[in-house]
Amino acid sequence: MKLSLIVAVAQNNVIGRNNELPWYLPQDLQYFKSVTLGKPIIMGRKTFESIGKPLPGRTNIVITRQANWQFSGVLVAQSVQEAIRIAEQFCSEQNQRAEEVMVIGGAEIYSHALTIADRVYLTRIDIKVEDGDAFFPELSVTEWQKISEIPGEADASLRHSFSIYERKVI
Q: Would you say residue 18 has pLDDT above 90?
């Protein structure tokens, strides 16, 4: 199963402020839904709590260090590796053929998952967020290759583009 990250970043790699997105961009939300629908999604507890409920049409897996944490409609893991195993096992039990599991945040989970990820779906937003408190690591050109880039809609409130990166085979 391929491990992919999906993330929206500002020019300065900010992805969050006070556990929220520092922008509202409907085109990116639509893109996020189209890429993740029908796939297992992995997120940290704080990201889940900022969303407030399981995302429909996806197997929701939440990573937390809190031993007794639970939420209806959510599978719980304590690490990225355990979350991947849970996704594979759940898909097998449900006879689902998910070829990709998606990591959707937050910063700490991205940091751990990026070391083993195969693909990154990156929305770059043309804004600088000065008071951001969550960041996405810079993608190394020695490890990652951009395989596609599509500009966002011209009439969008913020200029943006959608890129896909794949890990280089070394």
A: yes
